[in-house]
């Protein structure tokens, strides 16, 4: 019945359209009023009007100064039509945009208002509409309306002009560049500082967020960080909180922005405000994730972290500890990331360890239900533990809390980032600690898994860390039985492969591990070295001019050891090692030159 009535009503609507086509200036107001009423009350009207070609007459009336008294109403008609996708391209094609832009500059506020509505609706999700408006030089005029409506506050004009600009630049890099060049950042910040209206402030913030990092220089120059902190901490409008948080998130990774925020006297107020938001039962998960991310990013900046941590006395410390012990996974993960960001110096690591966080971090890495949030928590906790492990004075605390068993159990994970970080932590804890190295090396299960991980091709970091851990175990234990076990499961081949690694550190760690292996080797272990082709690879690498002096010197020491044992002695002769060493006596490096001379003398190589 309702549809029938609407169809019946379209008969009068069609009459209005026909009258519009040939209308005197005296009657035009009445006809447009009737058409607008139909468009607003009957969703079929806009579709019906598509076949009328009315857009051409609208354009003609807008250009005719005799009809100027109805120009504002015509702009309103365009605004209503452009609420519908099919109408936007039609309106853009009939060249009404220059007339609408002219109305924007009108002294008649109603004309200007309706023209801004029309332009805003015309470019809503319409690349054609945006391009058409930009090509007619509207950018500066739109920003000028915001500026003038801020200087002489006009809330309605600000709301409609900001809405128009939002549609104009959304998903359009070209127009974002245009508004930036026209000085939109300072205009928007002035608007936010001057206007006490939540909708206006939210609109201006949304524009800043859309422009994003492209506008960071202007943001910093106009102290946007300080303004955003004020809005978050002190502004009376709760409705804009989400917009403020989103805007801060857009710029928070920038170092200068972080510095500007952290230098503000409200930084502790911000931390308290974020704690309040997190603890509010009405706060949704997305907002919680965003505000804790702000803290994590600020702790990621060198300068802002120092101010916030304040040698362990900062307001953020008890908050992080609270999040770490909270039941909510996202807060635990944020705390772990924050702790990891703080733990970038030995002093900070020592202070953090004094807060007895290690058991909580180890608890966070325990295998639990495999969900995205839990995986993120485990990785965040491992990152924090790894950073703490870099500090030699904290390692005993980690070891005493049972970290070796907790972390080594994660090597069976199928998640590469977990394995990668676990290998790194175990290597750090074993470095300089033969007890830990022996514990790892005495476990056939752990050794076998490490050797398996040396073969991982899809994640270079995993294979590299597995190689480094294997070399570390050899270096720190210097235990013939452990090294023999490593050889028995194919580990020596991997150690030799380190000599060809593109990273100098891995090359040297491999060379040291082979040097120790050779020093403790019995006949059986020497046979393993022989079968792995050690001589061929060592001679090849020691002659490589790209290899650094330290690695070459270690390899020369290795050659000196191998020279005394068969079948290496014969293999070295066949590989031409004597000539290679004689050449190295003339090397540019004094270290290599001296070491080569020692090897010649100690091995009685004679003259070349």
* CATH class value of the domain at 1-137: Mainly Alpha
The backbone outline, from C-alpha atoms, is: elongated
Give the CA-CA distance, first to last residue.
Answer: 109 Å
Count, helices: 41
Low-confidence segments, ≥5 residues, pLDDT <50? Answer: 1-9
CATH superfamily of the domain at 1-137: Leucine-rich Repeat Variant
Q: Per CATH, what is the topology of the domain at 1-137?
A: Leucine-rich Repeat Variant
Structural class: mainly alpha
CATH-scheme architecture of the domain at 1-137: Alpha Horseshoe
Would you count the extended β strands for me?
0
Residue-averaged pLDDT, rounded? 92
Question: What share of the residues does DSSP label as strand, in percent?
Answer: under 5%
Query: What can be said about the biggest beta sheet?
Result: none
Radius of gyration: 36 Å
Helicity level: over 70%
Q: How would you characterize the overall build of this protein?
A:
It contains 41 helices and no strands. With about 600 residues, it is mainly α. Among the domains are: about 1-135, Alpha Horseshoe (Leucine-rich Repeat Variant); about 535-608. Helix content is about 75%, strand content about 0%. The chain is elongated.
